[in-house]
């Protein structure tokens, strides 16, 4: 596929593409060996992701179709059964591209969607941008790459996430833990490579999965951006090096220095605080 923007590509077709994604770039940054293992051993379906996928479909109006699990496949407590018959039924539904959730989860999905649409900033952005699940393909530094925006109109973009803690501090920590700033930069660079312009806005809409279903609405500052620039460049460099050599190394050999917290604990050991 040549470089460009595709507005009607299915999620399955997108994920089957060979170009490097932001998730794969983050695997490379962990270690090239992590990337190689994950590429060679695709992960099985994770039920933990179904709630977020269902919220994505409910809020954005696109994505995997959601099926509420019938009562005969639920436990008395309302959870999806772990019985073999239910597992086989679930596999059949998922093979047809469906996301299956229980009735309690469905109620949470509805509440999360309502919370997002009740947030003035998130609602205004969603109403002002028509593009949904927009795929991009570009080549940067000799590396074919891909990106898929949840929300995009050629100038502004947003990504919808569910998180246990959507507070400013909670999501700021998640940015570092999960490399969301790398995702931000990866997508933004794909947009720039294709259009020749910078995005005006890239927002994260973050909603909690439990009552009161609080919503965060954030963008990332220049310090996150500066770190992300270095990381995405490093990921592409690693990809080219490893592809050329056929070697995908793990952890490097190095001399370790104690972290600040360990030095502080040693210096203060035995002191009595009054």
Task: Describe the fold and architecture.
- This protein has a six-stranded mixed beta sheet with strand order 1-4-5-6-7-8, with helices on both faces.
- It has eleven helices and eight strands.
- It is an alpha/beta fold and 274 residues long.
- Helix 2 (22-30) crosses helix 9 (180-195), helix 4 crosses helix 6 and helix 9 (180-195) crosses helix 10 (222-245).
- Helices cover 48% and strands 18% of the residues.
List keywords for this structure.
single chain, 274 residues, alpha/beta, 6-stranded mixed β-sheet, two-stranded parallel sheet, 48% helix, globular
What's the mean pLDDT score?
92
Secondary structure category: alpha/beta
**Uncertain ranges:** none
Helical amount: 40-55%
Oligomeric state of the chains?
single chain
Per the principal axes of the C-alpha atoms, what is the gross shape?
globular
SS summary, helix count: 11
The SSE order reads: EHHHHEHEHHEEEHHEEHH
Radius of gyration: 21 Å
Note the beta-strand portion: 15-25%
Number of strands: 8
Strand order of the largest sheet: 1-4-5-6-7-8
What is the end-to-end distance? 68 Å
* Sheet having the most strands: 6 strands, mixed
């Amino acid at each position: 596929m040549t470089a460009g923007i595709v507005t009607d590509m299915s999620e399955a077709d997108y994920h089957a593409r060979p170009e490097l994604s932001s998730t794969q770039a983050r695997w490379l940054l962990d270690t090239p060996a992590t990337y190689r293992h994950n590429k060679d051993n695709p992960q099985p379906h994770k039920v933990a992701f179904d709630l977020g996928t269902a919220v994505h479909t409910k809020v954005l109006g696109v994505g995997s179709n959601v099926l509420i699990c019938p009562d005969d496949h639920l436990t008395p407590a309302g959870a999806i059964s772990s019985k073999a018959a239910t597992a086989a039924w679930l596999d059949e539904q998922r093979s047809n591209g469906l996301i299956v959730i229980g009735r309690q989860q469905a109620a949470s999905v509805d509440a999360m969607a309502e919370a997002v649409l009740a947030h003035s900033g998130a609602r205004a952005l969603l109403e002002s941008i028509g593009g949904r699940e927009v795929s991009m393909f570009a080549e940067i530094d000799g590396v074919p790459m891909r990106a898929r925006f949840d929300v995009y109109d050629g100038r502004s973009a947003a990504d919808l996430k569910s998180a246990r803690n959507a507070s400013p501090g909670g999501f700021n920590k998640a940015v570092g833990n999960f490399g969301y700033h790398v995702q931000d930069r990866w997508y933004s660079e794909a947009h720039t490579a294709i259009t020749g312009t910078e995005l005006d806005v890239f927002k994260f809409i973050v909603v909690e999965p439990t009552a009161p279903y609080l919503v965060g609405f954030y963008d990332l500052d220049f310090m996150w951006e500066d770190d992300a620039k270095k990381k995405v460049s490093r990921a592409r460099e690693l990809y080219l090096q490893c592809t050329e050599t056929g070697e995908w190394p793990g952890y490097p050999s190095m001399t370790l220095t104690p972290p600040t917290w360990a030095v502080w604990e040693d210096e203060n050991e035995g002191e009595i605080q009054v």
